[in-house]
Amino acid sequence: MSLDKIEILYRNFGVLADAKDKISEHVEEYSEIIGAVKGSVNDKKLASQFITRFFKHFPTLMDQAIEALFDLCEDEDVSVRKQAIKDLPSLCKENNEYTSKVTDILGQLLQTIDTTELSVVQSSIMTLCKNDIKGALKGMFNLIEISNSPVREKCLKFLVPKIKMLGRDIMTKEMEEYAIDQCKKILRNVTGDEFMQIMDLLAWSRLSQSLAGQKELVEIIKHHAELSKSFDPTNPEDVDRSIFCSLHCVPYLCSAIPSTPFVSFLCEQVLPKLDQIPETPKEESGGLDNQLEALKLLAELSPFYVIHDDTPQHITNIVDCLFALLPTPPTSVEGVEETEPEFKYSRIEALLYTLHHIVKHDVELICKDVDRLKELKKRLQYMARWSMAYVKRLREVLKAGENDADKAAENKVKLVALKTMANINTMVKEFFHNPPAFKATITLSFKPLSEKKSALEESAANGGGVGTKRRAPISFGDRGDRDGVSAAKNRPGVDSKNRIYTPPSGKFSTNLSYQQSREGGGRRPSGGGRGGGGGFRGGFRGGRKWRY
User: Fold this and answer.
1) Which InterPro entries match (predicted)?
2) DSSP3 helix / strand / coil % (the chain, rounded to 5)
3) What's the number of CA atoms in the CB half-sphere (13 Å) around residue 84?
4) From the centroid of its chain, how far is CA 520?
């Protein structure tokens, strides 16, 4: 019976292929081809190819033909699904009005767990993008806007890097502006991971290439960072949002786009509660020490801070944090050997750098309280004494292992530590001018390396310093990890641990129901409505919610 259907399919194909200008008269033959999608596996695969081959010639059967192919995309047999998915873009070559609808369906199929099928889905979406970028983007963004979390997440993770891969010849100015507008709509209701993905796309777009666009991006970040809210240090969502959301504004800061709102929030809300933030790196935070990360962020923001009425209180809070890290010099007792304190040098570097940039334009801000300045200098001097011995140990360890290939990674970390110590030493000296003078140019040890990496590393080994990747941990010689984190992990892009919906290996329809899309006919899984309205939803790095 199946063989007869194959013969009928080939017979109908021959009739249509030979009909030439009169092909539209053979509606019955094309209808029989469409009907073959209910046959055997081979019937279905052949029907898929023939449907797309003659699709454009039968406008009255187009909707029926598309629905037949959509049915094949849900078939129990993966080879049938792959054939239909591969053929779908052919429908839109000369019928662009269907691009959005087809992209919508393909976007839902990004959930498949079969890697070979996923590859075909991705390839088909890219084909649609190259043939009709406007229709493809419309379909994808519409799906992202109204879908439930698993579909939305898969679509964003696919779309953001692929848009950048398409290049400016396909992503014209008009298409970029459309994508930017759609991203702004999506930002009204996003998870933390989605926020990062969309900001990554906006950073690539033309929006980031003008001052007005950069200001707009910083305003978006400011809004999502919720700087007007009270900070709860025990709430992981508050900590994540405050640190990792605000970090996105750093590339856009300049004299015309100050960091003052962000620095003010950190000084007023975070620093007084810093010790209440869980210090031990948690698995769900990617192993990051959030106390240290908050101070690093503050340091990066500080060069673009503008002094205002609340600045004296900000300085007070910064100095208080330094006092918490710098012990008071003990009274020496004859015959009793002094024990080296545990200094958290990375935190000290970040706080000194912040203080350096805030007071450099008005030294009186730090000099007004003579007693506090005197106490700070005394503690800095005490730390500097111990740091000299520590730097000596670091150099000895580096020299001993300079030819040991197994210690190459460890030595790079120690070079970072040397750079940290060099920065601290330079900034401490600034306090001992009369009056204090904050004129030194400092590059934070956790900032990315410059092009002069090799020369700087050599300098560090001989007593200078070297920069390093921002997120690398710092391990301090034989005294263990003095600050840094337990694993070298970049931020803010930490993998989400949200559980992803797994489509069935058989028919999608056994687990999913479909409803009409707003575009008029696109199918989508039930539960796809966004619901709720504004606010961060879903989870940021492991299921956490941020809302606004």
Assistant:
1) API5, ARM-like, ARM-type_fold
2) 65, 0, 35
3) 28
4) 33
Contacts of 210 (CB under 8 A, 6+ apart): none
- What span, in angstroms and rounded, lies between the C-alpha atoms of 302 and 170? 39
Nearest to residue 220, comparing CAs of 237, 238, 202, 236? 202
Lookup: tokens for 300:
């990066």
Structure-block tokens of residue 53: 């081959």
pLDDT under 50: residue ranges of the chain? 1-2, 451-482, 484-548
Question: Tokens 């998870």 label which residue?
Answer: 191
Rg of the chain in Å (alpha carbons): 31
Quote the tokens at residue 39.
């046959």
Helix axes 115-131, 78-87, angle to 10 degrees: 10
pLDDT in tens, 335-379: 567 788 889 999 999 999 999 999 998 999 999 999 999 999 999
407 contact partners, CB below 8 Å, separation of at least 6: 401
- How many CB atoms within 10 Å of residue 271? 23
CB 85 within 8 A of CB 106: yes
CB atoms within 10 A of CB 4: 8
